[in-house]
Predict the structure.
Amino acid sequence: MREGKGITIVKADITTLDVDAIVNAANSRLIPGGGVDGAINKAAGPALAEAMMAIGRCPTGEAVITPGFKLLAKHVIHTVAPVYAQHGEDDVWRLLRNCYRNSLALASLHGVRSIAFPSLGTGVYGIPIAGACKAAVGAALDHLNGGDAPAEIVFCCFSDSDAAYYRSALEEARRKG
Ligand code: AR6
């Protein structure tokens, strides 16, 4: 369900969402790959790969922005999650939180009011969903408490099981206040 404000959790293909910006789980060379990156590039058309390659690089935890081309979303924000096997525990969560923070800050700079995130880092990069959704929800709540745009944050899950993890992480974070 979409409320227009706050956090919404949906199960969907992120390329179909009518939001101002969708976030891509990219690699640091910004070369279109598989997973959600492949789906976004397929839906946006070849101009997206050209725009990504023109930027050329995005360090882990940082974010860059391109147009959405053929997507409903006006912008695509590309961020690079850490590869779970290449980082120590503390580093993984710090870098993953940075992905969410930097994506939201960049969105804010571009006047984005609604943004959808996939479950960054939990596919090819191997980050366990239980910790990943806590980092995602924590960063989103911190952002919303700050009062900056975007005020609508959608977590777009690709499975019912991922959506259930996000729902319980959100309930737990709200309980802890
Ligand atoms: N809509 C929403 N979520 C999706 C979609 C979709 N269409 N397709 C996959 N997911 P991944 P990562 C989910 O592997 O782990 C690429 O090759 C998927 O089920 O896409 O950050 C890049 O180029 C999972 O929950 O991203 C990088 O090299 C989540 O999106 C590398 O993969 C993230 O899975 C990035 O790996």
